[in-house]
Amino acid sequence: NKKAFVELLFWKSPAAVREMTEGYGSLQGGEGTGRSRVPPWTPQEEQELRDLYWKYKEVEGEDVIAAILAHLPAPGRTRRQVVKQLVRL
């Protein structure tokens, strides 16, 4: 490829550099992408999130998200994921 030198000037991540040096398609199954895929919210989890939000939103002096995280049955959800999902809902 005659224009490969331009690509060398604008590396985006170590994974992109690895692909350029070892050949495209060398990363299997998304390894080295830096971020793991967040599991999607199931309808049951969304409903539970709604219920917990309505239950704890009126409690004064307490962090709503912390209360939701403490009672959320799905382990491994982060505060950021919960906030993002509440905004989306």
Automatic annotation (TrEMBL):
Residues 1-89 form the BEACH domain. GO terms for cellular component: replication fork protection complex. Residues 23-42 are annotated as: Disordered. It holds the Pfam family HTH_TIMELESS. GO terms for biological process: DNA repair; DNA replication checkpoint signaling; replication fork arrest. One of its GO terms (molecular function) is DNA binding. This is TIM protein.
